[in-house]
Amino acid sequence: MSANMDTVKSRTITYEELKSGIVHLGLKQSDAEVKQLMEAADMDGTKTINYIEIITATMHRHKFKRDEHMFKAFQYFD
Protein backbone atom coordinates (compact mmCIF):
# COMPACT_ATOMS: atom_id res chain seq x y z
CA MET A 1 0.00 0.00 0.00
CA SER A 2 2.67 2.52 0.97
CA ALA A 3 4.71 1.86 -2.19
CA ASN A 4 1.67 2.76 -4.30
CA MET A 5 1.22 6.02 -2.41
CA ASP A 6 4.87 7.06 -2.77
CA THR A 7 4.39 8.43 -6.29
CA VAL A 8 7.73 10.29 -6.47
CA LYS A 9 9.68 7.31 -5.05
CA SER A 10 11.14 9.35 -2.20
CA ARG A 11 10.62 6.44 0.24
CA THR A 12 8.32 8.70 2.26
CA ILE A 13 4.66 9.67 1.94
CA THR A 14 3.63 13.31 1.91
CA TYR A 15 0.22 14.66 2.91
CA GLU A 16 -0.78 15.00 -0.75
CA GLU A 17 0.33 11.43 -1.54
CA LEU A 18 -1.58 10.13 1.48
CA LYS A 19 -4.70 12.04 0.46
CA SER A 20 -4.43 10.82 -3.13
CA GLY A 21 -3.79 7.24 -2.01
CA ILE A 22 -6.85 7.25 0.23
CA VAL A 23 -9.00 8.45 -2.67
CA HIS A 24 -7.44 5.80 -4.93
CA LEU A 25 -8.42 3.12 -2.40
CA GLY A 26 -12.02 4.33 -2.64
CA LEU A 27 -12.13 5.66 0.91
CA LYS A 28 -13.89 8.87 1.75
CA GLN A 29 -11.97 10.93 4.28
CA SER A 30 -12.30 14.63 4.90
CA ASP A 31 -9.22 16.86 4.69
CA ALA A 32 -9.30 17.11 8.48
CA GLU A 33 -9.32 13.31 8.83
CA VAL A 34 -6.41 12.92 6.41
CA LYS A 35 -4.51 15.61 8.31
CA GLN A 36 -5.23 13.80 11.58
CA LEU A 37 -3.95 10.51 10.10
CA MET A 38 -0.81 12.26 8.88
CA GLU A 39 -0.14 13.88 12.24
CA ALA A 40 -0.72 10.62 14.10
CA ALA A 41 1.69 8.67 11.89
CA ASP A 42 4.38 11.36 11.50
CA MET A 43 6.19 10.74 14.77
CA ASP A 44 9.38 12.61 13.91
CA GLY A 45 7.63 15.79 12.76
CA THR A 46 9.07 15.82 9.23
CA LYS A 47 5.63 16.30 7.60
CA THR A 48 6.16 12.95 5.84
CA ILE A 49 5.57 9.33 6.80
CA ASN A 50 8.55 6.99 6.43
CA TYR A 51 8.68 3.18 6.41
CA ILE A 52 9.22 2.84 10.17
CA GLU A 53 6.28 5.15 10.89
CA ILE A 54 4.05 3.11 8.56
CA ILE A 55 5.01 -0.12 10.32
CA THR A 56 4.47 1.45 13.73
CA ALA A 57 1.07 2.84 12.74
CA THR A 58 -0.13 -0.48 11.32
CA MET A 59 1.19 -2.69 14.13
CA HIS A 60 -1.49 -1.35 16.47
CA ARG A 61 -4.20 -2.28 13.97
CA HIS A 62 -2.87 -5.83 13.62
CA LYS A 63 -2.63 -6.25 17.40
CA PHE A 64 -6.19 -5.00 17.80
CA LYS A 65 -7.47 -7.51 15.22
CA ARG A 66 -5.55 -10.35 16.91
CA ASP A 67 -6.93 -9.38 20.33
CA GLU A 68 -10.43 -9.15 18.87
CA HIS A 69 -10.12 -12.68 17.43
CA MET A 70 -8.82 -14.01 20.75
CA PHE A 71 -11.75 -12.41 22.60
CA LYS A 72 -14.27 -13.95 20.18
CA ALA A 73 -12.62 -17.35 20.57
CA PHE A 74 -12.72 -17.01 24.37
CA GLN A 75 -16.42 -16.12 24.23
CA TYR A 76 -17.12 -19.10 21.98
CA PHE A 77 -15.42 -21.57 24.32
CA ASP A 78 -16.77 -19.93 27.46
UniProtKB/TrEMBL annotation:
- Entry's InterPro entries? EF-hand-dom_pair, EF_Hand_1_Ca_BS
Alphabetical list of PROSITE patterns matching this protein:
EF_HAND_1 (PS00018)
Q: Which domain of life is it from?
A: Eukaryota
Keywords attached to this entry? Calcium, Kinase, Transferase
Molecular function per GO: kinase activity
Protein's name according to its UniProt entry: Calcium-dependent kinase 21
Q: Write down the species.
A: Olea europaea subsp. europaea
